[in-house]
Amino acid sequence: MDLSTAAAALTGGVLIGVAASLLLLLNGRLAGVGGIVAGLLQRPTGEWGWRAAFVGGLLAGGMLMALLSPSAFGPSPASTTVLVVAGAAVGLGARLGRGCTSGHGICGISRLSKRATVATMTFMFTGALVVALMGVLGGAR
Q1: CB-based contacts of 38: which residues, under 8 Å, 6+ apart?
Q2: What is the dihedral of CA 49, 50, 53, 57, to 10 degrees?
Q3: Which of these, 1, 19, 92, 100, has the minimum number of CB atoms within 10 Å of its CB?
């Protein structure tokens, strides 16, 4: 890893931490993306505006990066069908686990939540297991 990669990772981590902290301090809400999106899909409440702004900011940030540095986004090694099924599985898992990786991993662990720590360890273990199985079943790339 070179210095620019480390600097980019550090900057991204700091921005995520600052954003999550500001949302908690200014709005009293955790930055769990799954819960924020789920709130958008429910009937409109007084919280719809900030949720829409949060998700819009995520999408706008991704689009801006795609414009500024298209090489940062390589082609997916998986088919669209696999991506849709995987996305649905992640969404279902987030609902079953009562939170997503951002809510548990960023906000929960920082609040010393035991449930969030166990959930994050489960996400990480499962992700590593799937990568290992895909390497074995799909052949080493």
Answers
A1: 95
A2: -170
A3: 1
Which runs of consecutive H residues, i.e. helices, occur in the chain? 3-27, 33-41, 48-68, 80-96, 101, 109-110, 114-138
Encoding tokens for residue 58? 């995520």
Q: What is the mean pLDDT of residues 72-95?
A: 83
Amino acid at 41: L
For helices 33-41 and 80-96, angle between their N-to-C axes, nearest 10 degrees: 90
Q: Which two tokens stand for residue 46?
A: 């007084």
Average pLDDT in the 121-138 region?
Answer: 83
Q: Return the pLDDT at 137.
A: 64
